[in-house]
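Protocol step 4 of 6: structure prediction from sequence.
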Amino acid sequence: MKTAVIDVGGGMRGIYAAGVFDCFLSRGVTFDLGIGVSAGSANLASFIAGQRGRNYIFYTQYSLRRQYMGLLNFFRTKNYVDLDYVYGTLSRSDGENPLDYAAFTANPMEFLVVAAEALTGSARYFTREDIALDNYDALKASSTLPVVCRPYIIDGVPYYDGALADPVPVQKALDEGCDRIVLILTRPRDYRRGTKRDYRYADIIGKKYPNAAEGLRMRAERYNGGVDLAKKLEAEGRLYLVAPDDTCGVDTLTRDVDALDALYKKGLADGEGAVKFLLGAR
């Protein structure tokens, strides 16, 4: 039986999923496949490396630094979030909080990182083979929010956040042959995504990247459709959906430490339900 875990990201709301993964690490839970979108890819990298609590520090401490994100970054580089600082300066082997790359490579778990090609709008599923020591470009590409950041370039190809192409990749997990899926959302399970903000951002990037803009316009439909599929699989006993009952006031770029800590603790507690689901499936 092949099991998958999916983390859909959500910027700073990703601290909820970080709590879920720390629960899994405490309970010795493993998966055959992990699929990460945006911040979800970073959460999964630390989970695969077995680094409990690592992501909590990024969300609650490093995010407060001006080098991490802020208007100064945006005015200087057109990137509100400095992905090179997050996944380079902090995360490389000589950084302040490096990814344990040896443990990451020793874990046989498959790993897919979802990004959107800016020119075509299509999904790119980076694999572990695209990740090397001190080269976490795939994670950067997956986390490049449109408008907030310029597209991230890899081998001459510009990328945007994976949510523009496959925001809730449940079907991808099925296509990969998974029999049991744990889906981690960072909004309540009955939340329905609207189009207002996505359409506004699409208008901004549309002149240069019309296909990526179309992905933004379709994001709500794709997100809501992915959650609907998840609920269908949940009713069949094939999927467990983990989602907060509320987001504690945390949104994509929130830096309120108390709110972040409260949402993390919700993730720690809610992960227990997924543990029971997985144990029952064996």
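Step 5 (inspection) to follow. The two ends are 8 Å apart (CA to CA).
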